[in-house]
């Protein structure tokens, strides 16, 4: 499974592509940051983020996109920018038919470090170790994007398999019900045909 992790933000939007499967060490494919100038109109900043996200998806062909779930902070302006960038990421992925998963910061930290309260330094250190990188990914937004992708590969892969299994069971049950209905309909038709002959 190849996952594009997006750490949303207006000034810096972290991007990280990771490939792997649950229970195996993942591999980094790409990492980077989309930067937009603070003095640019918000709408134009969002267009830049959208265009770069499109390029990343075309170039790296992820199977899914993992976006950090926006949570309430005291700085409303920061939350608004983060939410707007997050929305753009989800729209770009949906337009391409890619599944989108939202992971909370504590969920990502727990997946990567074992603690939902880990600091940014710990997350960056563990991302560097897990992906066996020669250098620490910087800035923190890039490391966070890789952490999101790792989290989804490890957790999302298991979840999607469970959903697939549940879907397969549901399909089998629906098929069995349809076959039963068909058999009943055939029996009724046969009975009606015999009664018509009498």
UniProtKB/TrEMBL annotation:
Binds 2 Mg(2+) ion per subunit. Mg(2+) 2 binds at residue 68. It comes from Kribbella koreensis. Its cofactor is Mg(2+). This is Crossover junction endodeoxyribonuclease RuvC. Its main location: cytoplasm. The gene is ruvC. NCBIfam families: PRK00039.2-1, ruvC. Keywords: Cytoplasm, DNA damage, DNA recombination, DNA repair, DNA-binding, Endonuclease, Hydrolase, Magnesium, Metal-binding, Nuclease. InterPro entries: RNaseH-like_sf (IPR012337), RNaseH_sf (IPR036397), X-over_junc_endoDNase_Mg_BS (IPR020563), X-over_junc_endoDNase_RuvC (IPR002176). It catalyses: Endonucleolytic cleavage at a junction such as a reciprocal single-stranded crossover between two homologous DNA duplexes (Holliday junction). Belongs to the RuvC family. Mg(2+) 1 binds at residues 7, 141.
